[in-house]
Design goal:
The chain has 11 helices and no strands. It has 310 residues and is an all-alpha fold. It catalyses: 2 GTP = 3',3'-c-di-GMP + 2 diphosphate.
């Protein structure tokens, strides 16, 4: 049994009356965690049902008196059902809050720096295409050919664009084209005949042109609002961080890949504010944010965490 499950059961059945509020807080916290990592309620209830069944079997095997097992089973059932009720309520409240935040983040993602992003990703896609053509020209092994999904453009697309434009018909077509490039036409380049290789290259070139055209259509529909950014540093508003993390957890779960969460602390920032004034502190924040933005790839997300005067 998972250690966290053991701790939960221990808290459920060893609680004193004075600890009841703490027990309720625990159930609410578990429900909020389930909502944050998007564990379906039906899966939680199914687990509770199996857990109760196992406890009933243990009770029936342990008790000798014919009345005691029934009383113990009712006690166990009532406690677990109470925990599920509190947990489900917290899950519902947290899910509604997450949904509102996610919609706000999606609106923000649709509207941030569209012009700059369009040119940057167009350049990234064409750079990948040029790198591919060079790899083919020097007869590089097909297993070493760059995958579009792992390129700078692909990472930006799957980590940002897919979420921001979820539901747009163009996104389905772009995703299908990327899948075909990586899993069909790159493999076809390994074929020995020149005709098949040329056909695969032609298909890849057509796919990149289709992707560029569809992406252009999607980005044109976005406006130029900037409400989701901090006015000073231009970093992502902290309220969107939970949405970003939920999206990354979902991607990691389905792709079986890892992601990293890094917190950056500016040394001596408080002393800079105290000794040189808030204008100097603001300049430091702007410079650090600018360096981070210039030094990393397009799929990286930044969010300001601490207050500026801390």
């Amino acid at each position: 049994m998972n250690p966290s499950m053991r701790r939960w059961l221990s808290a459920m059945f060893s609680v004193e009356h004075a600890d009841f509020e703490a027990l309720v807080d625990l159930q609410e916290k578990v429900g909020q965690v389930h909502a944050r990592i998007d564990i379906p309620v039906n899966l939680v209830l199914s687990g509770a049902r199996q857990l109760k069944q196992s406890l009933y079997e243990q009770i029936n095997a342990s008790f000798k008196s014919p009345l005691s097992p029934g009383d113990a089973s009712v006690y166990v059932s009532d406690h677990i059902d109470m925990g599920m009720e509190i947990m489900s309520h917290a899950y519902s409240v947290a899910s509604d809050r997450n949904a509102r935040t996610e919609e706000a983040y999606k609106l923000f993602s649709l509207t941030q720096n569209i012009g700059d992003e369009r040119e940057r990703q167009r350049s990234a896609l064409l750079s990948w295409e040029n790198a591919l053509m060079f790899s083919v020209a020097v007869q590089q092994n097909v297993s070493q050919l760059p995958k579009l999904a792992n390129s700078e453009f692909g990472l930006w697309y799957f980590h940002k664009a897919c979420h921001a434009f979820e539901g747009a018909p163009e996104i389905i077509t772009i995703s299908r084209n990327i899948h075909q490039v990586d899993n069909e036409w790159l493999d076809a380049l390994a074929q020995s005949t020149t005709t098949e290789s040329m056909k695969a290259l032609s298909n890849i070139r057509d796919a990149t042109r289709t992707i560029l055209m569809l992406l252009e259509d999607v980005l044109k529909r976005a406006s130029s609002l900037e409400a989701g950014r901090d006015s000073l540093t231009r970093l992502l508003n902290r309220k969107f961080l939970s949405v970003v993390l939920s999206r990354e957890i979902e991607l990691a779960r389905h792709s079986e890949k890892c992601f990293a969460l890094l917190m950056v602390d500016i040394d001596h920032f408080k002393s800079i504010n105290d000794n040189y004034g808030h204008d100097a502190g603001d300049n430091v924040l702007q410079q650090v944010a600018s360096i981070l933005d210039r030094s990393t790839r397009g799929e990286i997300m930044y969010s300001e965490w601490e207050e500026k005067n801390s």
